[in-house]
Every structure is written in structure tokens, then in C-alpha cells.
């Protein structure tokens, strides 16, 4: 159910790409100046600001109550975008959409990590994230079908994309209230007996030293914000998010206007690269959990991502450029699932994990802002400067990984010799 909600979260924030080749640009004059970049950018302003506050509310109100409320609210906003008459209204509603969607992803990751041990979590996060990524990859096919409802699909089809997908979001979010499993300590969970709940808590207690949901205090926030490795890993995660958002927002436009495919084919061709990325990310996540390392896999993702972006940006023939999108999506999605799990692995307390998750997703939103700024309207339809800028960010992620891993290994060796204590536990060791 969390995957279903996140699927439509991705769809509702990225369906602008399909709408733009279905009449949105012409209807609300979005193709004037930097308006297209602005409506993408404003989403991430609220998204950055409200992630941590949302996680705090999540713990107080419960996962089912809060996440379901957010879903219904942003579904109504998405529906409203389909009724907009000018680009200013679209921009304002997109800003509200960012505020409401801010709590879903960090809340889901926080909830998942509350149930599983350190080297069980990447597979679960990968299934959650890549299920949503895979299903949302077909959103352009769905969008194409929805445009056909309009009497003039090429010019008015965009309205139906927002209206119908917003309505679906509302329906799924109402159902989610009945289905979502809350935190282990919540009395709302009825599917486990008290003895089974205690087994879950004991598993977490053996590894973390605490199975209860810790309280997020200013001391915890300060400690997390000043932890250098949290920011290093969050930056790695940000690079993957930037690339993924670039593909979600701009691949349909590159296929349609840059590579010359028809509208219908441009919608359909966005799905296969995302489908391959799902298989790749799940396989990599299994291997990373098995061998209990993250850094070497991060470097492999960086290579794939940069090679794919270079193929899209600098080759001439459509087919090799399209092949580059397969490599690029594998690399960027791999960075997301591995980077996200890496950040979760290297904190022990539940409270610090909540803040770490919010920082990671905040940095992902910064990646979205970066993507909106570097993929400029004047660079359409190929967006080569945007592809180069995204590749540079991925190279930064690789460089940070090369620096971070030896430092984490050094810290572990110091802990082995009794020279330091990591995360207030003599038994805790960093994952590198």
C-alpha cells in the first residue's frame, strides 16, 4: 500500500512532462521564458521545508492517519491543476502539492526502517521505491490513454491527466487508512499478537539497543545535523534523485522533440528503461545486503549513470541515445536505493533515524530544484547542458564515496581497538 501511494505521489508530481506535450504549454502559456522551470521548481520549495516537521507529526498522529490525510489532500490539489486556466494558478497549486507530498516519502522510509534490522532494510526499501518507480513508468502510457478522452487530445488532453490521476490518488489514500501497518509499538496493529510484537521488538533491541520509538529532541536534531557522514551520504542520494527527476520530467520531451518520435511512441518509450532499472535495483539491493557494503555499489551506479547521460547527450542517432536512457536510469535509481539504505544503516537510534531520513529526502528535493534549474527551456529539445550538469553531480557523488568509505573504515578500526565509541554503542560499526 505504501508503494501504491508513492506511485501516485511520483505520478502527480511528474505528470507535467506528459501534460506539456498534450497541450498544457499552449493552454496556460507555459512555453514563455522560464515558466516551465518555475512550475517544477516551486514544488520543491515546500517539499524541502516541510519534510522534518511532517515526520514529527507522523509519530504523534500515527502513520495511517497522517499519510492517508496527506494523500487525499494532494489528490485534490492535483485534480485542481487540471481545472487551471493560467500558469500562475498551476504554479501556486504545484507549490501546495510540494508541501503536502513532503511527508510521504520520509514517512514511508521511516516506517519501513522501524520494522527491520540494518541489513534487511535495503531490500525492503528497494521493493518499496522501485515498485513505485516501475508502476509510475507506465504513467505516461496511462496519460496517453487519458488524453484520448478529450475531443482534441493534442491540445486539451492534459486536463484529463490531472483530473483522473488526482481522483485515483484520493481513492487509494482513503483505502490506505484501513491497510497501512503502523509502528511496532502502536496499539492500532491488530494483525500481530502481543507475543509476536515482542519478537519484533527483541530483534531490534538486540541490534540497536532500543526497540522503542525515540523522541526527537533538539539535542538529537543538532547531533544529526552536525554528523558529517549523514550529509555526505545524503549528497550521494541527492545525485540519484536529480538524475531520476530529470528522466521523469524531461525524457518524454527529449523523445518527442529531440529524437523525433511520435506523441504516442514518446509516451510508451519511457516505460522500458524504468522497467530495467527496477530489475537492476532489486538485484543490486540483494547483493548489497548480502555483502553488507554500500560504497562499491555506489561507484558502479555512478559509472552507469554518467555513461548513460553521455550517450543521450552526445550521440547523434536516436537508437543509441535511447539505449543511454536504460543505463542512465539504472545508475540513478541504483544511487537512490543504495544511498537511502546507506544513510539508514549508519544511525542507531530511532530518533536520529527520523531526522536522518528527513535530511536525506530534503537533499533529494534539492536535487529536484537543481534538475529544474539546469534543464532550461532554452536548451530544449536535447537539454545537453542539463545532462552535463546532472552527470557532474553524479561524479561528485562518486568522489564523496571515495572519500567517505576510508574514513568510515578508519572509524570502525578505532572502535575495534577501543579508541572510540560509535553511535553511543561499543558494538555499533559503520557500514561502508
From TrEMBL:
Q: Name one GO molecular function term.
A: transmembrane transporter activity
As for subcellular location, the record says: Membrane
* Database matches in Pfam families: MFS_1 (PF07690)
Residue ranges annotated for the Major facilitator superfamily (MFS) profile domain, each copy included:
1-432
Quote a single Gene Ontology cellular component term.
Answer: membrane
Q: What residue ranges are annotated as transmembrane?
A: 32-50, 62-83, 95-113, 125-146, 158-180, 230-255, 261-285, 297-316, 322-343, 355-375, 387-409
- Keyword terms of this UniProt record: Membrane, Transmembrane, Transmembrane helix, Transport
Mode of membrane association: Multi-pass membrane protein
Q: What is this protein called?
A: Major facilitator superfamily (MFS) profile domain-containing protein
Q: Which organism is it from?
A: Exophiala oligosperma
Amino acid at each position: 500500500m505504501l508503494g501504491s501511494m508513492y506511485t501516485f505521489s511520483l505520478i502527480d508530481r511528474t505528470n507535467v512532462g506528459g501534460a506539456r506535450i498534450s497541450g498544457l504549454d499552449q493552454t496556460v502559456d507555459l512555453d514563455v521564458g522560464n515558466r516551465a522551470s518555475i512550475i517544477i521548481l516551486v514544488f520543491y520549495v515546500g517539499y524541502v521545508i516541510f519534510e522534518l516537521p511532517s515526520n514529527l507529526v507522523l509519530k504523534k498522529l500515527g502513520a495511517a492517519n497522517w499519510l492517508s490525510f496527506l494523500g487525499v489532500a494532494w489528490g485534490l490539489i492535483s485534480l485542481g491543476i487540471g481545472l487551471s486556466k493560467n500558469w500562475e494558478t498551476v504554479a501556486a497549486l504545484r507549490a501546495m502539492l510540494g508541501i503536502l507530498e513532503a511527508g510521504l516519502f520520509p514517512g514511508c522510509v521511516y516506517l519501513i526502517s522501524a520494522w527491520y534490522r540494518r541489513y534487511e532494510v535495503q531490500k525492503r526499501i528497494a521493493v518499496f521505491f522501485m515498485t513505485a518507480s516501475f508502476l509510475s513508468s507506465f504513467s505516461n502510457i496511462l496519460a496517453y490513454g487519458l488524453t484520448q478522452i478529450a475531443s482534441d487530445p493534442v491540445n486539451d488532453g492534459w486536463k484529463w491527466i490531472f483530473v483522473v490521476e488526482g481522483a485515483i490518488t484520493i481513492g487509494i489514500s482513503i483505502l490506505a487508512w484501513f491497510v497501512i501497518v503502523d509502528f511496532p509499538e502502536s496499539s492500532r496493529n491488530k494483525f500481530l499478537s502481543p507475543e509476536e510484537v515482542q519478537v519484533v521488538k527483541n530483534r531490534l533491541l538486540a541490534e540497536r539497543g532500543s526497540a522503542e520509538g525515540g523522541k526527537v529532541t533538539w539535542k538529537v536534531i543538532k547531533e544529526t545535523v552536525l554528523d558529517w557522514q549523514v550529509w555526505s551520504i545524503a549528497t550521494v542520494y541527492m545525485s540519484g534523485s536529480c538524475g531520476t527527476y530529470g528522466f521523469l520530467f524531461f525524457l518524454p520531451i527529449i523523445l518527442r522533440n529531440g529524437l523525433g518520435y511520435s506523441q504516442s511512441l514518446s509516451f510508451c518509450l519511457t516505460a522500458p528503461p524504468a522497467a530495467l532499472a527496477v530489475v537492476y535495483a532489486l538485484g543490486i539491493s540483494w547483493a548489497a545486503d548480502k555483502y553488507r557494503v554500500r560504497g562499491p555499489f555506489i561507484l558502479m551506479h555512478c559509472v552507469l549513470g554518467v555513461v548513460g547521460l553521455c550517450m543521450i547527450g552526445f550521440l547523434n542517432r536516436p537508437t543509441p541515445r535511447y539505449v543511454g536512457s536504460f543505463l542512465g536510469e539504472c545508475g540513478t535509481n541504483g544511487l537512490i536505493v543504495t544511498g537511502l539504505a546507506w544513510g539508514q544503516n549508519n544511525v542507531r537510534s530511532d530518533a536520529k533515524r527520523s531526522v536522518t531520513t528527513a535530511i536525506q529526502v530534503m537533499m533529494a528535493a534539492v536535487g529536484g530544484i537543481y534538475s529544474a534549474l539546469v534543464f532550461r527551456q532554452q536548451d530544449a529539445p536535447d537539454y545537453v547542458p542539463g545532462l552535463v550538469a546532472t552527470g557532474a553531480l553524479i561524479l561528485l557523488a562518486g568522489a564523496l564515496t571515495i572519500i567517505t568509505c576510508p574514513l568510515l573504515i578508519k572509524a570502525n578500526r578505532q572502535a575495534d581497538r577501543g579508541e572510540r565509541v560509535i553511535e553511543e554503542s561499543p558494538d555499533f560499526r559503520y557500514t561502508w
